[in-house]
Design goal:
Largest sheet of chain A: 5 strands, parallel
Pfam family, one (chain B): AcnX_swivel_put
Strand content of chain B: 15-25%
Order of helices and strands of chain A: HHEEHEHEHHEEHHEHEHEHEHEHHEEHEH
Shape of chain A: globular
Structural class of chain B: alpha/beta
Number of helices of chain B: 3
InterPro entries (chain B): PMDh-S-like_dom
Number of domains of chain A: 3
Number of helices of chain A: 16
Largest sheet of chain B: 8 strands, mixed
Number of domains of chain B: 1
Helix content of chain A: 25-40%
Order of helices and strands of chain B: EEEHEHEHEEE
Radius of gyration of chain A: 22 Å
Distance between the termini of chain B: 11 Å
Oligomer: heterodimer
Protein name (chain B): DUF126 domain-containing protein
CATH superfamily of chain B: Phosphohistidine domain
Keywords (chain B): Lyase
Chain lengths: ~425, ~140
Amino acid sequence: MSLALSAEEQAIAAGKDGAAMAMRIVAESARLLGAPRLIPIASTHIDGALYHGDSGTLFAERLVEGGARVAVRSTLNVGALDLMGCARIRLEEPARGMARRMMEAYRKLGCEQSWTCAPYQAGHRPALGSDVAWGESNAVVFCNSVLGARTNRYGDFLDIACAITGRAPDYGLHRLENRRARLVFDVSGLSPSFLASEIAWPVLGSLYGREVGNAVGVVTGVAKHPGEDALKAFGAAAASSGAVGLFHIAGATPEAPDANTILAGTTAETVIRVTSEMAAKARAGLSTAAASKTIDAVAIGSPHLSLAEFDALERLIAGRRLLVPIYACTGRHALSGLEQGGRRKALEASGVIIVADTCVVVTPIMPELSNGVLMTNSGKFAHYAPGNTGYSVLYASLADCVESAVLGKPRFTDIAA
Amino acid sequence: MNARAEILVPGKGGEGEALVLTAPISFWGGVDPKSGRIADVRHPQHGETISGRVLFLPGTIGSSSASAVLMELVHNGRAPAALVLHEPDAILLLGLIVAREMGWETPMAVQLERDIFETYRGSIAKIAEDGALTIAG
């Protein structure tokens, strides 16, 4: 089926301004994707303002020069700089100046200065069943799965083009028939104590992503709703180890009141029965430095920490002084809450380095070390840190991360799967 | 070998040494946007450069930043001479679509059955603006 544009869309595309350029980009993408039409969208979340090279900056500035403005609510994912001035970023000129110009261009296009990969915890929560165009893999999977809004994975350039046109190609996860589960990921064989532990969700997410790839599945055997931060960690890990855009959890996510509903009465094509051995192997697979005797840093906050996660961090540190720093990545939405009552100052006095607007795997922040070892409780950091920072990784719970930072060496509490 | 490939993104016809990849590649993290070298150490063609080559892609792994890497290669003058894909990858090709919008000279991208890729290995491949793909030497 070939793409049909409305008369209005054709007229916009025929222009010479920034809006015309955006419409042609959306239409060309729709043609390559095989979408029959464009559909209106309610909001966007834009990952394209992270500096990868000068061409991206020049593109955003061209849209600004062409008078383009976003037509729908648009939040921004992280940039390459900490505009709040919390952490020192080691990005050198001229890249630093180009990164700053890029962030400024997206502001001029009318995007909200959210600078977070957790926009859904910063007040941007589209309604169940609404069509949106979101970028950044963890934001996409949370938006689809936990909020039940409908988006595909919108990459650089297409995200802002959708924001300016207020339209997106009609294909993939915008269509109801592509949202039903085709496989079952059954965790009922795991111990209740493991499922209740903090590490269960990043570990299972990493395993899920590797097992299902880009298929839509439903997780069964979860007795109670694990909480929003757990689902955030599951989705982020799943979208880094596989191309997961949407998952369901029977009884917990909005499109899956139970497994049968989301399987739409059909039999699952595949049933993955997760064993404690599989979970233990997935947990071990998140570490690349298992034999290390020391650690150089701890990084948490991928996706960005919520205030509830900062509460837990404060409780675990309990006023102690850290021997190695904990890099705590978050958005400015959480920062304002932390400023109250001197919480940020107290954390920094303990040795926590707060990173706002960005994070340690997308821009150089941690010192360059040849054999650095990083401990993290994030499945996503565990996946990307070795390639992007050169540090090898130890995966552990938040409690173990904090104890290890106090001691300067790894400490693990056994949690049997 | 003469084949008529379907044009995915129009552009300038090109000629260059064929580089037939034997495994799918992720442009983001897999190709250095400054030099055009294949940087993924696990890729069988690791160390080869894609710049100026007619690049045959049996498959792509779709990072959402693949388009940014391809556009950066075009902007740096390090793009392939042409891209031949087994199936369209909208995210990757967006890099060419946006580069065209910027007014930069872009290589063309065409679609061809991957079974035919091997016949171009080791040759100088030439692609005309109508999608005709020939061996020039």
